[in-house]
Specification:
Layout: H1 2-130, H2 136-150, H3 157-174, E1 178-185, E2 192-199, E3 203-208, E4 214-218, E5 223-226, H4 231-241
Antiparallel strand pairs: 1-2, 2-3, 3-4, 4-5
Length: 268
């Protein structure tokens, strides 16, 4: 009986010890499990943070790659632009050099042209002075205007030359036209109003309004000659010149031909 009680007591003590050991064993496992779970959670958080950093780096890498490609495209476009700009600069440089050369040529031309134009005006003035005395005031004024224009800086060289050529053309036209106009003959108290009629440069005649005086310019003697024998001819010439009658054969006094001696060694 005592042995049975002792055995029961021993079994009870063993059971209590085993329970105590089980309790201690169960508490340690739970702590380890919690620690493992916590460690895994921390690892997951670290992995998520790392993935986030990787994603950010990937985005930054793509952005930098796009910027790099854009920089390459911009560099290529800028290179082409610089090449085109260099061509334009060279073209402009050539144009500037050409313009400088033209300016030098223009200055040289002006040095040659200005004396030539002065000579042309002087020759025209002398020609008007020695020519048949028709429209003297008008022609003399034209020459004086040319002299004034030649000295003006605000008138281009081309315009000056054009005016001179225009004056020469007008003088040329006088030689092949028929014209009648009113003017003064004589000077001072002896001046009188007459009708002039010009047949080119062949003949210059006049007649008073009442028809009592008729005359012509003697180119050889360089003076006016009164000659009523041409009264009807001068009257008819005036009528035709004013387009008051149909063109007809006109009679007019002309200077006698002058014999010109042939140069030595040339047969007439």
């Amino acid at each position: 009986m005592r042995q049975i009680v002792w055995k029961l007591a021993t079994i009870r003590r063993l059971a209590v010890a085993a329970g105590v050991m089980f309790v201690f064993a169960s508490g340690a496992g739970a702590q380890k499990l919690d620690a493992a779970v916590n460690e895994q959670a921390a690892a997951n958080r670290d992995a998520a943070a790392s993935q986030q950093k990787i994603d950010q780096l990937a985005d930054q890498t793509q952005d930098m790659t796009a910027k790099y490609r854009q920089a390459l495209n911009d560099t290529a476009a800028l290179k082409k632009y610089n090449e085109q700009l260099a061509i334009q600069v060279k073209s402009q440089g050539d144009r500037i050099a050409n313009m400088k050369k033209q300016l030098v040529d223009i200055e040289a031309t002006q040095r040659d042209v200005l004396p030539l134009m002065q000579k042309m005006i002087d020759t025209l003035a002398e020609f008007v002075k020695l020519d048949v005395p028709f429209l003297i005031e008008e022609r003399t004024k034209r020459v004086e205007n040319l002299k004034q224009i030649l000295g003006r800086a605000d008138v281009s060289t081309s315009e000056k030359y054009r005016r001179i050529l225009e004056a020469y053309q007008i003088e040329t036209e006088y030689g092949r036209t028929l014209e009648a106009y009113e003017g003064k003959l004589g000077e001072g108290d002896k001046a009188r109003t007459v009708q002039f009629v010009r047949l080119g440069r062949i003949s210059l005649m006049y007649q008073t309004a009442d028809g009592r005086e008729t005359g012509y310019w003697d180119a050889t003697a360089k003076k006016w000659v009164e000659d009523s024998g041409y009264a009807s001819d001068v009257k008819e010439a005036i009528r035709v010149a004013k387009k008051q009658g149909a063109p007809d054969l006109l009679w007019a006094p002309v200077p006698a031909p002058i014999a010109v001696a042939a140069p030595s060694g040339v047969k007439p």
